[in-house]
Amino acid sequence: MKAIYVCLLAAAGVMSAGAVQAQDAEALAKSKNCLSCHAVDKKVVGPSYKDVAKKYTAKDEAALSAKIIKGGKGAWGEIPMPPNPSVTPDEATKLAKWILSQK
User: Fold this and answer.
1) Cα-only R_g, the chain
2) pTM score
3) DSSP state, 45?
4) Of the four listed, 25, 27, 98, 99, which is most buried by Cβ atoms within 10 Å?
């Protein structure tokens, strides 16, 4: 019986750690002003993160991370995404993983 409780507690810990990481990534997006042009569930200036997650897969994570830093144009219409040189590569990876999890 103890083994079941230990397993349940471990599973709860893993699940709550994922929620904390998602909150950290969202706070990072806010701190880097990503949410000035994007929202999770609706188009603002740029596409919603849900739409980005539909278009890209985990295989595109590195390209998405690079685009977060360098900016881009043409993938979502006429309005270009400006570069974000204050975002570090580690932060860009964290943001890309969070964005791709918004399915």
Assistant:
1) 16
2) 0.78
3) S
4) 99
